[in-house]
Amino acid sequence: MDIVLNRILGNPYVLGGVALLFLSLLATTLYYRGNSIAAEAESARLTEQNRSLIATNAQNARNVERLLDQADISNKLQAELAEKLKEVAAATEDARRTIKEIRSNDPKADEYLGTDIPDSLLSVVNRPARH
């Protein structure tokens, strides 16, 4: 057995093959270790990116809630304005009807309402309302 072992260990090709085998194993181990380190780094990066996206999503959800609240307020204000506009339209129609009745029943009022507004008063009549 010693002779066989001496022959194997004394043969440079066998020693070279064994050394090549160990170097291959070492290279493979280092390759997989490098991939493992890269995977851990990628995992950490993706975890941080996920946290960032979750925070952004939460902020967007708050923004959507705020916009929905503003839309509700806007809808209520629009409804109130529509109601007030109906009231103004009804009051205007009532005033128009009343003036029509007065003009048909009182010739003097019809004559007065048929006259032109003096130029000195037109600037007041055509002036925008102040609020």
From TrEMBL:
The chain crosses the membrane at residues 12-32. The keyword Membrane applies. Keywords: Membrane, Transmembrane, Transmembrane helix. This is Phage lysis regulatory protein, LysB family. It comes from Hartmannibacter diazotrophicus.
